[in-house]
Inverse folding.
């Protein structure tokens, strides 16, 4: 049997960074590499030639299909494989591809594409099948100026597309990659032009909606998705399931929850094997505080498992992400035991999915021995993974366990001695341990070429400020201005230094912006955390940029967070008298009363919190406790029954209700 030849066909422009990964992946797999270069100004062409690629220059015409078809015209192989430069072939999936194609009865084949998203590959991914292999025939040509397709051409001539075991990885959706606004602008321009030419083309509207969704313009995205759906010839179209998911997703982002649920009700019936739809429905129910229903749909995700690969699916919706979401639901239901079990299942399903780590740390650290918590994480995590050690250090630090955090930093530096992230963390934890001089020295170890350098410099300035070296702190601010750094709290920090250098509060030029307001509260919180109370008192002058009413509310919450309950009560009551207190403020006032054994006053505040927000279980529990302390058992039963009507799955409510009824009968 004579084995067929395979041509890799690509179009590129300025892809010198990505090409080595892509072309390395096909070495020994393809028989020739055809590259149509549309005007590279970097080393792309030289890189391609190092891999014996045949490079052809192509004048870009704003049409991706035309460019791809030009590359096809240069190919001499029996079969075409096409990739983009930010993709790679998974070699072990294609070792016998020649034998497979020699026996093939289809005109083209789908491959499984893993689209990595987020900060780095390997954690978050969207999976879908895509036709990337087809016979080299002159009638098989791409269509569509962007998001070009080959399948319609194959099907037009009676050909069929089968499934292969070949896999490819796509890195173009990583955060760093999609930050190129020019690319988005280009795509939108091409698609808008194509819409004018084909105003009712469903695939073009689908792609245009996807571009708008990617940049967060959900109104425009929804507009085009709806047009696409209304023009679909049938639900058998390959992207139909993704389209209805995207419609529901946009409705969710626009907080049109009822409309989204209505869409999903029909969509799940049409695509019952698409777990992503069930996962999305569960998330919307959670947004609506319908936690019991949300939990049941997350459980259905786990029962069903990952979606059929014929759909574009988010990795983990049928396993670790569903477990994680369930854990969050159980936390809302004040059931830490079940939450811990769900979060642990999520970690066990994917050791590198670290989102549950923070939740577990926040539950376990306050109530378990630190050594036991560390042992638990040792058992369920990869303790040689850099991101894992960073996450552990940060989780323990958030719970004020800085010595333990330094243990993980030390381990990280032993495994990754060049990691500037660990150096930065080491300095921050030294700072929180009030070892300011040591912290400043550590921050100075981060070199100017590091992306963390501005943050290291900022922390150096903060350490100098805490050491009363205001001039050194000011020099840091000047250096950051020279670097044109976008450190978010730089302006607020500069005002803080000026205040301590003797400037009166009315002469400090701190503009009232949302970011400055946020940073003022952050700096005040840091000073309380470090027990720098004298500096905190003086720094309160910065809050003059905030309206007096809003200042009282936020200051009261800040005082409560750090245990200054009398001061918190004073500020929160002031906000309440001005009609500016929210449900959380009344709940905190209730908590303060309970600590002082003022149970009747606590009841009044808790009831007001529930009037303002009856969607939080902990408000019901707090009111019940205040009633129990007053021996108002009948009223407590009534509150619990009302709570159970909102949270029927809550074990804590049912157990408490049973206990109170037993006591009342005695």
């Amino acid at each position: 049997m004579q084995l067929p030849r395979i041509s890799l066909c690509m179009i590129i422009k300025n892809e010198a960074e990505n090409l080595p990964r892509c072309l390395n992946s096909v070495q020994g797999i393809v028989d020739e590499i055809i590259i149509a270069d549309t005007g590279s100004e970097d080393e792309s062409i030289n890189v391609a030639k190092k891999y014996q690629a045949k490079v052809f220059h192509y004048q870009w015409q704003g049409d991706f299909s035309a460019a791809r078809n030009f590359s096809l015209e240069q190919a001499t192989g029996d079969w075409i494989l096409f990739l983009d430069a930010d993709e790679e072939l998974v070699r072990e999936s294609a070792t016998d591809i020649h034998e497979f194609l020699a026996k093939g009865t289809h005109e083209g084949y789908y491959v499984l594409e893993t689209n990595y998203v987020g900060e780095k590959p390997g954690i978050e991914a969207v999976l879908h099948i895509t036709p990337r292999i087809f016979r080299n025939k002159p009638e098989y040509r791409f269509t569509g100026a962007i998001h070009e397709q080959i399948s319609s051409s194959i099907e037009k001539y009676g050909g069929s597309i089968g499934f292969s075991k070949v896999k490819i990885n796509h890195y173009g959706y990583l955060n760093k990659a999609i930050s190129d606004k020019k690319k988005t602008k280009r795509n939108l321009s091409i698609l808008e032009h194509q819409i004018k030419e084909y105003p009712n083309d469903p695939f073009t509207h689908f792609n245009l909606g996807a571009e708008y969704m990617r940049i967060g313009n959900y109104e425009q995205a929804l507009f085009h998705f709806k047009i696409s759906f209304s023009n679909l010839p049938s639900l058998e179209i390959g992207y139909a399931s993704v389209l209805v998911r995207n419609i529901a997703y946009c409705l969710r982002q626009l907080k049109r929850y009822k409309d989204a649920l209505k869409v999903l009700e029909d969509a799940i019936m049409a695509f019952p094997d698409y777990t992503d739809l069930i996962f999305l429905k569960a998330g919307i129910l959670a947004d609506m505080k319908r936690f019991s229903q949300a939990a049941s749909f997350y459980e259905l995700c786990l029962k069903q498992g990952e979606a059929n690969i014929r759909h574009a699916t988010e990795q983990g919706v049928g396993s670790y992400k569903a477990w994680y979401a369930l854990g969050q639901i159980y936390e809302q239901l004040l059931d830490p035991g079940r939450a811990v079990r769900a979060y642990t299942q999520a970690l066990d399903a994917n050791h590198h999915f670290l989102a549950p780590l923070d939740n577990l740390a926040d539950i376990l650290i306050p109530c378990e021995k630190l050594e036991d918590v560390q042992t638990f994480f040792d058992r369920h995590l990869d303790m040689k993974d850099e991101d894992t050690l960073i996450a552990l250090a940060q989780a323990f630090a958030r719970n004020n366990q800085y010595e333990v955090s330094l243990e993980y930093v030390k381990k990280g530096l032993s495994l990754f001695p060049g990691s500037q992230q660990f150096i930065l963390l080491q300095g921050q934890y030294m700072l929180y341990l009030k070892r300011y001089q040591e912290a400043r020295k550590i921050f100075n170890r981060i070199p100017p070429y590091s992306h963390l350098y501005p943050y290291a410099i900022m922390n150096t300035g903060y350490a100098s400020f805490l050491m009363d070296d205001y001039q050194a702190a000011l020099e840091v601010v000047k250096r950051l201005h020279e670097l044109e750094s976008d450190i978010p709290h730089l302006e607020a920090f500069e005002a803080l230094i000026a205040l301590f250098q003797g400037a009166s509060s009315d002469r400090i030029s701190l503009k009232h912006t949302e970011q400055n307001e946020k940073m003022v509260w952050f700096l005040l919180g840091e000073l309380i955390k470090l027990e720098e109370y004298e500096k905190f008192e003086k720094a309160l002058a910065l809050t003059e940029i905030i309206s007096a009413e809003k200042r009282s509310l936020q200051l009261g919450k800040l005082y409560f967070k750090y245990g200054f309950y009398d001061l918190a009560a004073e500020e929160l009551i002031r906000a309440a008298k001005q009609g500016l207190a929210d449900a959380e403020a009344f709940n905190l006032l209730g908590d303060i009363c309970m600590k002082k054994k003022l149970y009747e006053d606590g009841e009044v505040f808790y009831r007001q919190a529930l009037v303002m927000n009856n969607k939080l279980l902990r408000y019901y529990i707090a009111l019940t406790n205040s009633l129990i302390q007053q021996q108002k058992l009948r009223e407590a039963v009534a509150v619990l029954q009302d709570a159970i009507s909102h949270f029927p799955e809550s074990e804590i409510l049912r157990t408490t209700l049973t206990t109170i009824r037993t006591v009342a009968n005695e």
